[in-house]
Automatic annotation (TrEMBL):
Residues 27-91 form the Metalloprotease TldD/E N-terminal domain. One of its GO terms (biological process) is proteolysis. This is TldD protein. Transmembrane segments: none annotated. It comes from Heliophilum fasciatum. Keywords: Hydrolase, Metalloprotease, Protease.
């Protein structure tokens, strides 16, 4: 992607010197140009075709525990200097910062894109949307509504900081979602399927538009004939296809260092302690090429990393950005992320997974006399301080005598994140991913989460009227696959 009047290395170094002219321990500049395109089909026709360009820079100065942040969409030397002066006056104090020569940063992560979105015509993109729409509407007369969304974003980024880091990067993400509504004797049911990653238009080599549509329609039709979910405590088998919503929400956020340092995490003060079953290993891995949360560098110029958070049940570490890492005299784990140049970076997940085990997933089901099989998660809510959660099940089945029998609807899972991980007694060798836009502190960033098939010995399964978790730190997770997210795309789930 071409830049117009992109600030050079020397200009950024001069701006950093201005930012630290009144003192400060650290300063950085985040320069961004983002081009996005979205296409939406509703009511059997293209209802939305949008594109946009956003350009700007954010300048941060840290002095002790204080952070000053200023941003501008004027990328001239004068514009950047003015923003740097604002930040410098707001962050007086700390050591007199010395800006060193900027040097290029290197990353081991290869995120090469084969078919850049800007090299694909709008007509081709629209054609893929219409193919999915036609497939979904032709499958069954009970399908009453279909929504198809395609989105891509190309983000060119430059980061420079007072420690000498200089990074240039181009990030590409593409996403495709089909949402189907079916009506029958049992009422109205919905189904959706999504596809996405740090890829270009080669996204559709993974799955054709028709296949995405078929999956969404089949899920909606299945729920029309599904029986009411059973209630009570029982074993719950989470299939790999369910994705890692639970590990992301009920576990992952509690392992972000800012929440730990603020006393808002159930995992605070537990390093080295057993916090999960010995079968559970949790990893945040920004180096998984092609996955939706993958990155060469985070938004502070730190290379993407693989961070083991929980290893065989033992808490090993947290996810840090530069600010939270400095508080503990640690190195950043490459988790400093931001929505755009208008936001300062904070610790965020990338691709968060429960590592696969060694068991045959089918054997786990066969060894479960009675329970619930969850193959797709929906929305819900989480208390980030205690880990208490209530999750909706978008697709689930009853397990009877080791066999998967009929589909169920209206199921919810209620429990506590750390406690749920402690009762994991079987872990399969598979691994399934899901994508989403994760919201925190008013910022949304693209993420992926994943888990293998695993069994929890006992969770509370209830109807849709389950009570909310108590406490002030409630996070609501809404299944909104048809809604627009922060980069102009559409997501499987928005977490906020």
């Amino acid at each position: 992607m071409e830049w117009l009047d992109r600030p050079g290395k020397e200009a950024l170094q001069n701006v950093l010197q201005v930012a630290m002219q009144h003192g400060g321990d650290f300063a950085d500049i985040f320069v961004e140009k983002k081009v996005s395109q979205g296409i939406g089909c509703e009511d059997d026709k293209i209802e939305r075709l949008s594109s946009g360009v956003d350009v700007g820079a954010g300048i941060r100065v840290i002095a002790g525990e204080a952070t000053a942040y200023a941003y501008t969409n004027d990328l001239t030397v004068e514009g950047l200097t003015q923003a740097a002066q604002v930040a410098s006056h707001a962050a007086q104090g700390g050591a007199q910062g010395q800006v060193v020569d900027l040097r290029p940063a290197l990353s081991p992560v290869d995120l090469t894109v084969e078919l850049p979105p800007d090299q694909v015509t709008v007509d081709d993109k629209v054609a893929h949307v219409l193919r999915a729409n036609q497939q979904a509407r032709s499958m069954d007369e009970r399908i009453k509504q279909v929504s198809v969304m395609y989105a891509d974003v190309v983000q060119a980024v430059t980061v420079a900081n007072s420690e000498g880091v200089y990074m240039e990067d181009e990030r590409v993400r593409s996403r495709f979602v089909v949402h189907a509504v079916a009506a029958g004797d049992s009422g109205i049911q919905t189904g959706y399927e999504s596809l996405g990653g740090t890829v270009g238009f080669e996204l559709f080599r993974e799955k054709e538009p028709e296949a995405v549509a078929q999956a969404a329609v089949n899920r909606a039709l299945l729920l029309l004939s599904a029986q009411p979910a059973p209630t009570g405590k029982m074993p719950v088998v989470m299939a790999g296809s369910a994705g890692g919503t639970m590990v992301h929400e009920a576990c992952g956020h509690g392992l972000e260092a800012d929440l730990v340092q603020k006393g808002l995490s159930v995992y605070g003060g537990k390093l080295g302690q057993s916090v999960a079953s010995p079968l559970v290993t949790v990893i945040d891995d920004g180096t998984l090429a092609g996955k939706y949360g993958a990155l060469r560098f985070d938004d502070e110029g730190t290379p993407g990393q693989r961070t083991v958070l929980i290893e065989e049940g033992e808490l090993k570490g947290y996810m840090y950005d530069r600010f939270t890492a400095a508080k503990e005299k640690r190195a950043s784990t490459g988790n400093g992320r931001r929505e755009s140049y208008q936001h300062k970076p904070i610790p965020r997940m990338t691709n968060t997974i429960i590592a696969p085990g060694k068991e045959d997933p089918t054997a786990i089901i066969k060894d479960t006399p009675r329970g619930l099989l969850v193959t797709r998660m929906g929305g819900g809510q989480v208390n980030t301080t205690t880990g208490d959660f209530v999750f909706d099940v978008a697709e689930g089945y009853l397990i009877e005598k080791g066999e998967v029998t009929h589909a169920v609807r209206g199921a919810t899972l209620t429990g506590n994140g750390p406690e749920a991980l402690k009762v994991v007694d079987r872990v399969g060798s598979d691994l399934g991913f899901a994508i989403g836009t994760c919201g925190k502190d008013g910022q949304g960033v693209p993420v992926a989460d994943a888990q293998p098939t695993m069994r929890m010995k006992s969770l509370i399964v209830g109807g849709t009227g389950a009570a909310e978790p108590s406490g002030p730190q409630i996070r609501r997770i809404e299944a909104m696959p048809w809604n627009e997210d922060v980069d102009g795309g559409y997501g499987r789930i928005r977490r906020r």
